[in-house]
Amino acid sequence: MAEKKKFTREDWKTLVDSFRYQKTRPDPSSKYWDEKIETVSRDELRHIQETKLKALVRYLNDNSPWYQRHFKKAGFQPGDLKGLQDLPKLPLTTKEDWSQNQMEKPPFGDFHCVSPQEWAEDGWMLYSTGGTTAKPRFFTFTLHDRDIWAWAWARAFWSFGLRPGTVFFNTSVYGPFPGMWGSQYGAHLMRCPIIPGGGMDSRRRLFFIKETNVTCVIGVPSYVLHLGQVAKSEHGIDPAKDTKVTDLVTMAEPGPCVPSSKQRIEAAWGGARLHDIVGHTECFPIPLGWSCAEENAARGRPMRDHLSEDIGIVEIVDPETFEPVPPGTRGVLVVTNLWSEGIPALRYLMGDYMVYSSEPCSCGRTFAQADGGLQGRADHTLRVRGVWIIPGAVEEVVRGFNELDDEFQIVADSVGDRERVTIRVEPRPEIARAAWPELQKRLSTEFRFVLGLGVDVELCEAGVLPRFQRGDLDAKAVRVKDLRSKPAS
Ligand SMILES: [Zn+2]
């Protein structure tokens, strides 16, 4: 029997590009960047996902030695996949899989679909993970991947309501962190200027924002909040009066989808609109989710993020059994990447909590949404006495108390056999000591109500808790400390 023809990089790129209809900037009057795909019918969307998924398993099998072995070990052959319904039968890919593969076959491992030589000849850039807890992992992206990044970011920017004339300023240090590079290329594709303000202190950043008429500030929510606050208190710049900032785009923390944080961040910037982008360094370093302008106006409930279902498949699974959970139920996110030439991940266990919402959105986009965005990473989430403690829920309570400053820390430890959770917060300096006991009591009651678990509340002196002032993208882990000798599973 004749060998089936190899599914090549060219075949894969051609297929991916055939579902990108609007590759360059549309007319500014257009509501959508790529109307045809953003308003596609759900049936057609399912067909697109199915077509790409079938091609993806062939592409992986024919071009990634690691996936070839991974499939073989699971007894799976690309022809076994008949449709989307078969996806949950495929093996998961985990962070540990790729990490181990890179250790065994340094420097890149062999899970990529381009060899080191091909990447050297047709590559774009190399990205790595933060490496705070393990050896940094490397990811090789190609020029084709760069085009997709730019397109996906421009589409999200457009959906926020941003148009030509926007002047962007990114407060983050890009380094080898992928997310923010996408903002740079997305702005280029919109033909909007962007100022990379990573290597500056707050004073200098504010000077640039004011003097160059920046209209949109990009960064990590906690830093963007901090910058807005010190503008007035320390640098004599009132964002509402002295700058032209109307929009804020943040990622890497739940902030924008936490109503009390959103309100606090927008207020610090004189009522600018705060937009959310979510993604993942390893499996989806471009907008997997983003909030549309209509969602931005939602009040009194957490904002939703549209999911890039044309270029990714989202599954929500139970964190222990990995079985699919029904829509509307909280579970852990598994993502299949339907766009990358260099590293398309299949069923990657992303590890963030999410609730899938099929509620239609008034913006007309047919992509489903993540209710409340990403709700914290499972490995930054504590399970104490059988209850999950989600940092976003703690943040919601903390930012809802006007007496408190923005930072908080969640500490779990053991006292004898008992597991204990302490939530550390900072009352604002103007709150008198005499008022602390009453504040502590109200916080305890609120945390018990929201978390469903009794916790200790520790009020700290102003400035004691760690702050993230350098736009550090890897800072979110610092808010959760697990000091238990053997964390309960
Ligand atoms: Zn929408």
Number of domain modules: 2
Alpha-carbon Rg, integer: 23 Å
Bound molecules: zinc ion
Using the coordinates shown, work out and report the CATH topology of the largest domain. Rossmann fold
Q: What features would you describe in this structure?
A:
The protein has 15 helices and 19 strands. The strands form 4 sheets. The chain has an 11-stranded mixed beta sheet. α15 links the parallel β17 and β18. About 1% of the residues have low confidence. The site of zinc ion has 7 residues, from α13.
Descriptors for this entry?
four-stranded mixed β-sheet, alpha/beta, 19 strands, Rossmann fold, binds zinc ion, eleven-stranded mixed β-sheet, GMP Synthetase, Chain A, domain 3
Topology at a glance:
Layout: H1 9-18, H2 35-38, H3 42-63, H4 65-73, H5 95-104, H6 116-122, E1 123-128, E2 138-142, H7 143-160, E3 168-170, H8 178-189, E4 194-196, H9 202-211, E5 216-219, H10 221-235, H11 239-242, E6 247-251, H12 259-268, E7 273-280, E8 284-290, H13 293-296, E9 304-307, E10 312-317, E11 330-337, E12 348-357, E13 369-371, E14 382-384, E15 387-389, H14 391-400, E16 404-415, E17 418-427, H15 436-451, E18 456-459, E19 480-482
Parallel strand pairs: 3-4, 3-5, 5-6, 6-7, 16-19, 17-18
Antiparallel strand pairs: 1-2, 7-8, 8-9, 9-13, 10-11, 11-12, 12-13, 14-15, 16-17
Helix pairs in contact: 1-3, 3-4, 7-8, 10-12, 12-14, 14-15
